[in-house]
Design a protein that fits this description.
- There is one protein chain.
- This protein has about 350 residues and is α+β, with helices and mostly antiparallel strands.
- The protein folds into 2 domains: about 140 residues, no CATH class; about 170 residues, Phosphoenolpyruvate Carboxykinase, domain 3 (Alpha-Beta Complex), CATH 3.90.228.20.
- Helices cover about 30% and strands about 30% of the residues.
- It has a 9-stranded mixed β-sheet, with helices on both faces. Strands 10, 11, 12, 13, 14, 15, 18, 19 and 20 form a 9-stranded mixed β-sheet that branches. The protein has a two-stranded antiparallel sheet with strand order 16-17.
- Strand 6 and strand 7 form a beta hairpin.
- The radius of gyration is 21 Å and the shape is globular.
- The model has no long low-confidence stretch (mean pLDDT about 90).
Length: about 350
């Protein structure tokens, strides 16, 4: 196969449409796979529309077991800073590029205005979800703002962003806040921009939290997302082994916590998780100025990269200063001390809704 053959095959075979409305941005997803269609209907059930006269982006998904593109001419995409695993190969053409996911063999086409995923999609629906969500993310980020490697929640119209290095528990903390009545704005990716009123607006994508087994067994609302056999296995493991276990589950928060997915909010507060699970002291929240902690601000940065080609042309490499300048327009807090999700969630909620915190 070559690129043109793949694109023609997708256009001819993908005859099963799905319409998704993300706060007015409408994606039509066409596929040849009934299995994949059902999977996505379940995942996006709260964003489905029966049809749409206006479609902002067409995305196609061609399920095929065939060999996609020959091995020659691929370039290795170097891992992001701090990472070592090679996840993608790149193939460049005059009209755009193709990204090959190394582990799964899924190919993602960015050719002119075509957005097509091809390969064993039924076995890798999460990569299709990410591909679809990236269309929305690219549209949000292209005109202005910065991409934050962060989760977002909101309550009473007030938004909270949370970030931290991998393993710090931002998804788990977000779930504890949902348990206390918050709604979910986004998991793991936020677009943050200055608002016309002088504050900050944050925008999310329809990506559910991916939680580890330790979160599942300590959150009663989530135990049904794992098999009984795995639940028994997890409950028998030591806490440190659970923390490091690389198994993830989608947490469908609407049914678990009786909350909503709200993709936009006014961001009033941002918390950077810098706590340590080996620290015996209670968690502490302390106000900070972005210029006083550039190394922590750097943990929230995310370059758009190859998956967001339109916004990558505007931003290029992420730098600390634009993020610091944005964070000056909200209350920035550093969460340090030991890890206690319930206590931290209660203190954050109190502070966001107008009560006190240590200076």
């Amino acid at each position: 196969m070559n690129i043109e053959t793949c694109l023609v095959a997708a256009r001819q075979a993908c005859d099963k449409p799905l319409f998704l409305n993300f706060d007015g941005f409408v994606i039509q997803f066409n596929t040849n796979s009934s299995t994949l269609l059902r999977e996505l209907q379940g995942y996006y059930q709260h964003f489905l529309v029966a049809d749409s006269a206006k479609v902002d982006q067409l995305v196609e998904g061609l399920e095929t077991p065939d060999k996609i593109l020959p091995a020659e001419d691929w370039q290795i995409k170097q891992p992001d800073p701090g990472k070592s695993k090679i996840k993608e190969h790149l193939l460049f053409a005059a009209e755009g590029k193709v990204v090959r996911k190394v582990q799964t063999g899924v190919h993602l086409f960015f050719i002119n205005d075509r957005r097509v995923c091809v390969g064993p999609l039924e076995d890798n629906p999460n990569q299709v979800v990410n591909f679809i969500n990236n269309m929305h993310l690219d549209r949000l980020l292209a005109p202005q703002g910065q991409l934050f490697h962060a989760s977002g929640v909101c309550a009473d119209g007030l938004g909270l962003g949370m970030a931290g290095q991998s393993g710090k528990g931002k998804s788990t903390l977000a779930l504890r806040l949902l348990q206390q009545g918050f709604d979910l704005v986004s998991n793991d990716r936020l677009v943050v921009q200055a608002s016309s009123a002088g504050g900050l607006d944050m925008f999310g994508i329809a990506k559910y939290p991916r939680v580890n087994p330790g979160t599942v067994i300590n959150q009663p609302e989530l135990v049904d997302i794992v098999t009984p056999e795995n639940l028994v296995r997890y409950q028998a493991m030591r806490p440190d082994a659970l923390w490091d276990l690389e198994e993830k589950y989608d947490a469908f928060v609407e049914s678990a916590f009786d909350c909503k997915f709200k993709l936009t909010a006014s961001m009033k507060m941002f918390v950077i998780l810098n706590w340590d699970r080996n620290d015996p002291s209670p968690p502490r929240l302390k106000r900070a100025l972005p210029e006083s902690c550039p190394e922590l601000v750097a943990t929230v940065m995310k370059s758009p990269g190859v998956m967001l080609p339109v916004s990558a042309a505007r931003i290029g490499e992420a730098k600390v200063k634009p993020y610091a300048d944005l964070l000056k327009n909200c209350e920035l807090l550093i969460l340090s001390g030991g890890v206690d999700f319930d206590l931290a969630a209660s203190e954050i909620k109190s502070l966001l809704l107008g009560q006190s915190v240590n200076p």
